[in-house]
Amino acid sequence: MRLLLITTSDIAFYGINLNQTIVLTQIGYGKGPTPYRTLRNTAVGNIIVQSAGYLPGYYVGIFLPDLVGRVRLQFCGCVLMAIIYAIWAGVTHHTSTAGLMTIFTISQFVLNSTVNMTTFLLPVELFPTRVRASAHGIAAASGKAGAVLTAFAFGSVVNSIGLNGTLGLFSGIMALTACVTLLIPETKGKSLEDIENDILYGKARVTYDDGQANDQQTNVGAKDQVEATIYTM
């Protein structure tokens, strides 16, 4: 359930990325005196955001999970995105188009180098093999449900409460995701054996020679000292 909740970040990610034309129009870049100029400005705006924010963010994000840890990266990314969206919402009507384009590009860079990396990694690494496929599928489906919702509702929400209101909503969603992220165990430095034996969740799964599997409840201290209580499944 905790992992399903952190996929709520997909609401903000797909809400922005699937509706960049609307965003560019709202900030004044995707407009023009003629249909041709409008299309041209929209295309150029998308190229700028993708080239300077989206794509570089992915390249930087390749190295960050192993450097800072998955959970820390997810948490810091959500906090940063909550702050960026809040700032963006606050200055929407008080900043030039160039300034808003800069904020838009920075938001895409941060989002893709942090949160959009960890939401792919965590479902793969958190679950043992016996449930990984099903659990990963459920987590991915919950994220895409949010993506479908925001893809179709984004335009209507912007028309109702404006871009600044929508960004404020996304800021709240990212803040909620940051809080839930703290409940997720860290997988950095953990082996496949640790994941398979439920070490991440404080249980050591032990299989004996007779084929019976027992769970060993553990509390892992700072020096990996373990006090275990064994009970039969």
Would you kindly provide a written description of the structure presented here, covering whatever features stand out?
With 233 residues, this protein is mainly alpha-helical. It has two domains: 2-181, Growth Hormone, Chain: A, CATH 1.20.1250; 202-232, no CATH class. Helices cover 70% and strands 9% of the residues. It is built from ten helices and three strands. It has a three-stranded antiparallel beta sheet with strand order 1-2-3, with no helix packed on it. The protein starts with a helix and ends with a strand. 33% of the residues are buried.
Q: Count the helices. How many?
A: 10
The rounded Rg comes to 21 Å
Number of strands: 3
Largest sheet data: 3 strands, antiparallel
CATH architecture of the largest domain: Up-down Bundle
Helix-strand category: mainly alpha
Summed over residues and divided by their number, the pLDDT gives a mean of 81
Order of helices and strands: HHHHHHHHHHEEE
Task: List the SSEs and their pairings.
Layout: H1 2-6, H2 9-17, H3 20-26, H4 35-61, H5 64-68, H6 70-91, H7 97-113, H8 115-126, H9 129-181, H10 192-196, E1 203-207, E2 213-220, E3 226-232
Antiparallel strand pairs: 1-2, 2-3
